[in-house]
Inverse folding.
């Protein structure tokens, strides 16, 4: 029955077209998702101790910065500006969650500023400053 064969061949052709379209749609969707994921992976500071412009008691202090993404600690840096304007690099400890960096400092009363620079999972570096005071309220 040549008629039935022709119909079968036409259907195969249609199915291949539909498959090709679906693969194309999958590719576009995958690219869109990858793009969105990259944008979200940018490290944005969500909260910190000390908070920006906070006053902390002088003495031993645990500094903690939490981001919206995983952080590469080895390629991130914390720099503290002391009341005399000199700077000191603070070691980033192996503590806290993957989205958090932690350091410890022993601070006399005065004005400080903590500069953070972090590398996020998408390979992008972001930075910011957290000015704060060690002293009595
Ligand atoms: Cu990024």
């Amino acid at each position: 029955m040549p008629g039935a064969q022709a119909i079968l061949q036409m259907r195969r052709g249609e199915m291949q077209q539909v498959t090709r379209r679906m693969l194309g749609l999958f590719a576009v969707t995958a690219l869109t998702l990858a793009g969105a994921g990259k944008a979200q992976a940018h490290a944005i500071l969500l909260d910190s101790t000390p908070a920006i412009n906070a006053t902390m008691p002088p003495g031993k202090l645990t500094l903690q910065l939490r981001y919206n993404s995983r952080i590469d600690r080895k390629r991130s840096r914390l720099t503290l500006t002391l009341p005399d304007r000199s700077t000191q690099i603070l070691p980033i400890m192996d503590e806290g969650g993957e989205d958090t960096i932690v350091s410890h400092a022993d601070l006399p009363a005065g004005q400080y500023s903590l500069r953070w620079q972090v590398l996020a999972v998408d390979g992008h570096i972001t930075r910011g400053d957290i000015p704060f005071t060690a002293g009595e309220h």
